[in-house]
Amino acid sequence: MSFRSILQDMKGEFGSKSRKGFDFRRSRTHQVVQDSTLAPYDAFKQSCWANMPPELLRDVLMRIEVSESTWPSRKNVVACAGVCRNWREIMKEIVKTPEVLGKLTFPISVKQPGPRGSLLQCYIKRNRNNQTYYLYLGLNQG
């Protein structure tokens, strides 16, 4: 390959300033990389979960939240909040604060400021038989 053809190829790839964003040649490797990165995004856009109406999605997530009351099954509620931004916002609306709900769901639930008049009390109870620890939320003042 001559030096002149290399320069012409470079000029063709980079183009002038006026054509820079519009006329652009890709090599085979660029096409393969770009196509492989777009494939999962296109598949998600076409999935039934992405096209689900927000009201129906809210109803599904509410049913999951109500049915999962104790750990370890409560982790499904946390997993739903980790799917995407829209699901997380809906789960934040559904899952109430520990004072109202009486359940610790997200790690942030422990860090949220409680009412100024009373403290948020948590109790840890150990089961000596199987060496597991249980975290309880104290809702009474006594």
UniProtKB/TrEMBL annotation:
CDD domains linked: F-box_AtTLP-like
Gene3D superfamilies membership: 1.20.1280.50
Domain Tubby C-terminal positions: 110-141
InterPro entries: F-box-like_dom_sf, F-box_dom, Tubby-like_C, Tubby_C
Domain F-box: residue ranges: 49-92
Family of the protein in this entry: Belongs to the TUB family.
Protein name: Uncharacterized protein MANES_01G214100
